[in-house]
Amino acid sequence: NNSMLCRKKMVERLRSFGVELGNNDLITSSFVAANYLKIKGASAFAIGEGVKEELMEAGVEIKENKPDYLVVGQDLNFNAEKLMKAYEIVKNGAKILATAKGKVYFEGERLRPATGVWVNTVEFITDKKAKLIGKPSNEMLETIQLFVCSPRKQTVLIGDECDSDIMAGKILGYYTVLVRTGIDKEAKKVKPDLIIDSLAEIKV
Q1: Cβ neighbours of residue 185 under 8 Å, at least 6 residues apart?
Q2: Calpha distance 201→7 (Å, rounded)
Q3: 2 touches 29 (CB < 8 A)
Q4: pLDDT category of residue 3 using cuts at 50, 70 and 90
Q5: Which residue has the higher pLDDT, 12 or 130?
Q6: 86 CB burial (10 A radius; 0-12, 13-18, 19+)
Q7: Structural contact between residues 128 and 96, judged by C-beta atoms closer than 8 angstroms
């Protein structure tokens, strides 16, 4: 559900850590949002540079005035000016797409506000509900199924949020692993198959 970077830049970042993969090996909520809008032939205004770049890469028309959709992604520079722009756009008829609804996440040892904070703020001020496009939305799960070719019972989903990651894995019928590097340290309503402290515990 990370929408901080577009898919291309995220692949480059992972490669810098020694992870070999291509664009088609990575599914992000921004990518799913871009495909959703492209299929609809809809225009959009984006909050978050990563989302904006992904939409442009997909050929989605970016409009400052009266777009069909407002897409809310991660934006650590979110401010009052952007909030009022979002308010204006939604009041002019735009629907809201949320790339994620998480509250906080860790950046090293530091807690940061997640996309859900901006989504909730936009929902509050506009009195409109956002459509979730990230995990565990149907759009995200359908995209995962298109890209992941392994049998469900032989597929592992590893994540650090029960409500999004583990929930998505359960719906898809995957083996789920909660890693305690995020906010969720123990299972919530959605129970993972395994809980670990670090990815280093996984032997491939």
Answers
A1: none
A2: 27
A3: yes
A4: confident
A5: 130
A6: buried
A7: yes
d(CA 6, CA 13): 11
pTM of the model: 0.90
Task: Judge whether residue 203 has pLDDT over 80.
Answer: no
Is the pLDDT reported for residue 1 higher than 80?
no
| Euclidean distance between CA atoms 17 and 165, whole angstroms | 23
Q: How many CB atoms lie within 10 A of CB 170?
A: 18
pLDDT at 12 over 80: yes
Q: For each of the domains in the chain, give its residue range(s) and CATH number, in order of start.
A: 7-132 (3.40.50.1000), 149-201 (no CATH)
Q: Which two tokens stand for residue 122?
A: 């936009």
pLDDT digits (tens, 9 = 90+) for 164-202: 999 999 999 999 999 998 888 887 788 999 999 988 888
Q: How many Cβ atoms sit within 10 Å of the Cβ of residue 5?
A: 21
Residue 16, class by beta-carbon neighbours within 10 Å (0-12 exposed, 13-18 middle, 19+ buried)? exposed
H or E, element range at 104: strand 104-107
Cβ contacts of 39 within 8 Å, gap of 6 or more: none
Task: Name the token pair of 125.
Answer: 């001020």
Q: How far apart are CA 150 and CA 41, in angstroms?
A: 31
Q: Residue written as tokens 């577009």?
A: 6
E strand or H helix at 194, and its extent? strand 194-196
pLDDT in tens, 125-136: 999 999 999 999
